[in-house]
Design goal:
168 residues; 5 strands; alpha/beta; 6 helices
Amino acid sequence: FPAPPECFVGREEAIREVNDVLAAIREGRTALRALQVLSRSGVGKSSLLLKLAAELDAACVAVDGRRLRTLPSHEACDVVLVDHVEAASPAVLDAILDRIETTTSRALPMLWVLARRNDVAAAADLGRLNDLSRSMALEDFSPDEGRVLLERLEEELGEPLLLELAVA
């Protein structure tokens, strides 16, 4: 399961990049309106989106592409977070991309952050998405982040991890 914001570890660079893009949009320094967060499964894209929703200085709406049948209203938000965008149906993905194009062409002060796995085939062609967005790779945890994560896990469990887990 994704880590809740209060248990979140690391990813300062990714959070900083999203904040930088949002600031550039607000200041009119970029035409960019969509940012993809790419990684293989299990690296922390969903946790990152939960953290962003909780801590961005912006009105956010978050949706899961796996369950999305229609797009929610986003008129009163600054950031739309779409998790598992690769699992959205082709029709829903097209609707998302249409909204991103509208947001971009009208220079609306909004950011779309789309998390997608890059280790599986998508249900739809992602060429249009790639044309409308910039990509940001979410890397595996650094050794320091891994240590903090394991320490937090021990705290939650209330006991030390098995040696095999701690050195893995």
